[in-house]
């Protein structure tokens, strides 16, 4: 039968087409040609990987990097061999009609198997070919073929693969599949590598990474803007085709760090421009010294006070590590979008200084859902498809400033660029069983990973973080975790997660005396030592205590009534000489109430910040606060009087400085974080009445000595046990009388509050054991929910991912009118953060004159759009998108609320907006000319100063 087909490349089988219904206008590409395009793309991507990562994958393949590249090319070329099947080919009748029925059977079908994705069919084809023509066992053949099986983002489950293995071959089609595989093998010159793998297969970590490479190669080769379609499906001049394609793809010269300065003093002077007379502090010195003497992947847990320069010390360590380990980048992760935005410019400034010593052009990404609104990010040069390569002819090393590259600009590829500044969700989602998680692993595997404010991960998030750390350790990725305060149990769980795969690798290598991981970790000191750096790596775990260089600062703690009038009575005398007061509330409702009250009392000298403002308004508010409350610098005029009210965004997002802090009660570590905003910066002068840093604590409806009672919303946000433990430790330490000494007492206070031996005051009537049990059950529930969505733990089992692929994905089907990619990303973030999914909408006004923004919005206030008006101006579309806001959870908490809210929102959609790329698929909520409206039986209003207010039928307004 093979002799009836010209050659062995089967040119009559197609893989890509521009349309299916009009033969006269049809362009397409043969399956063989598409495989060659994918192979060429994979080679390009392989050559742009970090040398250290290429070396690790090559080691797993028992090959040189040059031979490993050949296998990468073959795996990419063969990824779509499953398209050589009747079900796929008949999708274009005019092309299917060209297939000779004497060669390809049209009757002998596989039944249900024929309806499987071509990725899964391709896996079966490759497995059969490896067994029948390359002498592989089924088990080892699957370790290679699963790369094809996972190239659509998910690995198939074991039962499906077993069924396919037993399915009969289809006359003619099996011959075609084998012909194509042999042709691709010959073209890639990968026979020798396949011979080496016949008895060992591919390890799980490289299965993931190779699948990620093939996914990227498939996406590049499937883009008709990069690889042209043809009228007859067969490119004629392959060399010219590849030159055009790679020019369109426009990958810059691969970036590599240079050698970092040897001493920390030299480094800081060169990279951060130290002020005259300034020197790196003891913690910065210690971390830099540590990484200089380590050439294998390690976990570094840095516990140090706020304001101790942890960002700079992490960047310095990252560059030093990268040069020694052949890594090509860094991922810097933070808990919120605001902290991520704030750190981005510091990372860009650092990167600009490293470029002179490195080679190539670094790519850059900002990874969160609002990144397109960051002006600094938008100002970076963009390498667009089919555009000339960005380069600087005057640059001696051929490099350039950091660029944003079109190929790495979507949500799933945000970790691929050399430098990625992201929210922690991007790290956590590497452990989430969602589509294309292989891409996140590929992005992380070539970098140093830095996670700041790691204490912000709750018990649910911690499960995803631990699983991510396990895989990062398997990939030999250095990780730096930073925090001001971290409970002992949380820290040791993270260390154990990273250290476990190291011990597993040592055991497999036959090293003697390998101790049990849990025993080693628990032997670490549990108290004292602050600041402290804990290191876990090939040579074990060590804990390094660093003396504090600064004198302790005393903070006076004051109990205040949870009544705004009483609070004002206490504050008013203090404000006689001015001052900046920060008020941190646990809920948006309390913050809105407090802002309205104090704005009236101070004659308009109050500000409010929380998460329920329009994106445009929140960015403006954050910029305003930073401009007059940020670090002292020339041209900044700190106001004489200001009351700044907010939620936890003030605690973890902004580098601002208060003269007096009023805070709701919170768990000890978060309370200390809030205190870090008090007298944060060195200032020559503060108001006389606020010269001593004072923390006024509210959030209790009663401070009764025998029965302190939490304000209702505090217990709704945080576990009662954590709050009462905080109060108990403060009582035990006599903090209300003596105050607290920070940062010296920070570690001790946190460990005591989270320890197992917390003792409530004898006069309290609260049942400690009952509250502790309630907290334990709540944490267990969070952890259990996380476990249902995790990818497998790394292990030595050859087909680990295949055998575990049947676990239930955490994410359901996309059921809303949101754009599919954005909706999937939002669902993933909700899953790893353990938050109920809520709706993000574009908030606009509909008046008798048309659709517009709000009266204070210069560009949107008077646009007066109609339902029929197309948005042809990308700038206007971006401005409209900046009116996005997330609705409270009450709109989606129950199925009835979710369904009613979604139905009403979709009824408000503007059809003409679906023709604009940014606006397509977005949900819109319209308010009237007075900025009021209704949704799902609730009244809403939006105020420039208060944000979104939702009034329920039975409540005043939302939390």
From TrEMBL:
Ranges for domain HD Cas3-type: 24-220
Assigned keywords, A-Z: Antiviral defense, ATP-binding, Endonuclease, Helicase, Hydrolase, Metal-binding, Nuclease, Nucleotide-binding
An example molecular function term from Gene Ontology annotations: metal ion binding
GO biological process: defense response to virus
Keyword Nucleotide-binding: yes
Limits of the Helicase C-terminal domain: 563-735
Gene3D superfamilies given in the database record: 1.10.3210.30, P-loop containing nucleotide triphosphate hydrolases
Alphabetized PROSITE patterns for the sequence: HD_CAS3 (PS51643), HELICASE_CTER (PS51194)
Pfam families to which the protein is assigned, alphabetical: Cas3-like_C_2 (PF22590), Cas3_C (PF18395), Cas3_HD (PF18019), ResIII (PF04851)
PANTHER family listed in its UniProt record: CRISPR-ASSOCIATED ENDONUCLEASE_HELICASE CAS3, DEAD-BOX ATP-DEPENDENT RNA HELICASE 47, MITOCHONDRIAL
Family: In the central section; belongs to the CRISPR-associated helicase Cas3 family. In the N-terminal section; belongs to the CRISPR-associated nuclease Cas3-HD family.
This protein's name: CRISPR-associated helicase Cas3/CRISPR-associated endonuclease Cas3-HD
Species this chain originates from: Paeniglutamicibacter cryotolerans
